[in-house]
């Protein structure tokens, strides 16, 4: 076989694979696109057979109904509070990772392994003890009781520690010699260098806070403390036949996560690239 024929066969194979992957990607996107478009449809159009992809008449009535009649404004406020405190916890995780990576103190190794050991305990196992502790502190059915148990996490501390160990000690020493304190060194030197891992952790933190469901449902007895995920579950249970309303609620939950991922995907790719080089 001549070289020209081999090149043609390789190009044909690449085109075939590309076409198949494109078709597969479009098929995977179709339910998501249909959900988004259905949230702007009237209820009658969502239920009609055969179904339509593009709305015959765009309407925001479903979203207005979510906030006017389903208390989604309260759920959104609670979810944003949880996300805010989750990012505060992310900052604390970064500080803990920096401490384990760059500070030498007695018992550092043992303490770090104890932190790692907590990753082996399923969250469902600790829910009852944590709930009992919060109950003794009179923090159940409160936003503090929802936020505090998830403020820090062993996995996040581990990732920050592993990344920050690669920061040269000479760079930190030079900063200290210039008169910078430890906190300033952390803010102005360590955090900017750690942008890739910060971006990855920011996405995971946002998704975890935005999708908070089980713990708020356990701790909170008052509907005024429910999150969007809990509200969406209530929406599906109380309005089983209103599919357009359910599509609007689902779209409202999913779309922000998509935007966050699009914004931070560059840093995720950079992080994988840096990890591969290391």
From TrEMBL:
Organism: Paenibacillus enshidis
Transmembrane residue ranges: 12-37, 79-98, 110-134, 146-164, 185-207, 243-264
InterPro entries registered for this protein in UniProt: MetI-like (IPR000515), MetI-like_sf (IPR035906)
Family named by the database record: Belongs to the binding-protein-dependent transport system permease family.
Superkingdom of source: Bacteria
Keywords, comma-separated and alphabetical: Cell membrane, Membrane, Transmembrane, Transmembrane helix, Transport
Record's bilayer topology term: Multi-pass membrane protein
Protein name: Carbohydrate ABC transporter permease
Main location: membrane
Cellular compartments annotated: Cell membrane
Pfam family, one: BPD_transp_1
Residue ranges occupied by any ABC transmembrane type-1 domain in the UniProt entry: 75-264
């Amino acid at each position: 076989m001549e070289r020209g024929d081999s090149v043609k066969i390789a190009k044909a194979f690449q085109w075939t694979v590309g076409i198949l992957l494109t078709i597969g990607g479009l098929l995977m996107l179709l339910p998501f696109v249909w959900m988004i478009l259905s949230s702007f449809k009237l209820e009658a159009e969502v239920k009609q057979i055969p179904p339509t992809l593009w709305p015959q008449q765009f309407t925001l009535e479903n979203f207005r109904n979510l906030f006017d009649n389903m208390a989604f404004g309260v759920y959104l406020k609670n979810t944003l509070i949880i996300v805010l405190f989750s990012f505060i916890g992310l900052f604390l995780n970064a500080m803990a990772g920096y401490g384990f990576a760059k500070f030498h103190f007695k018992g550092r190794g043992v303490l770090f392994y104890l932190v790692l050991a907590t990753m082996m305990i399923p969250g469902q196992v600790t829910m009852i003890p944590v709930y009992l502790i919060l109950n003794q502190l009179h923090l159940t059915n409160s936003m503090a009781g929802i936020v505090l148990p998830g403020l820090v996490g062993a996995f996040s501390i581990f990732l920050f520690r592993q990344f920050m160990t690669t920061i040269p000690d000479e760079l930190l020493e030079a900063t200290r010699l210039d008169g910078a304190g430890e906190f300033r060194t952390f803010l102005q030197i360590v955090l900017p260098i750690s942008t890739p891992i910060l971006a990855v952790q920011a996405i995971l933190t946002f998704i975890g806070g935005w999708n908070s469901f089980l713990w708020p449902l356990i701790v909170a007895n008052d509907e005024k403390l429910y999150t969007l995920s809990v509200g969406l579950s209530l929406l599906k249970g109380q309005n089983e036949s209103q599919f357009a309303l359910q599509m609007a609620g689902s779209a409202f939950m999913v779309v922000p996560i998509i935007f966050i991922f699009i914004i931070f995907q560059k840093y995720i790719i950079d992080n994988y690239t840096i990890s591969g080089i290391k």
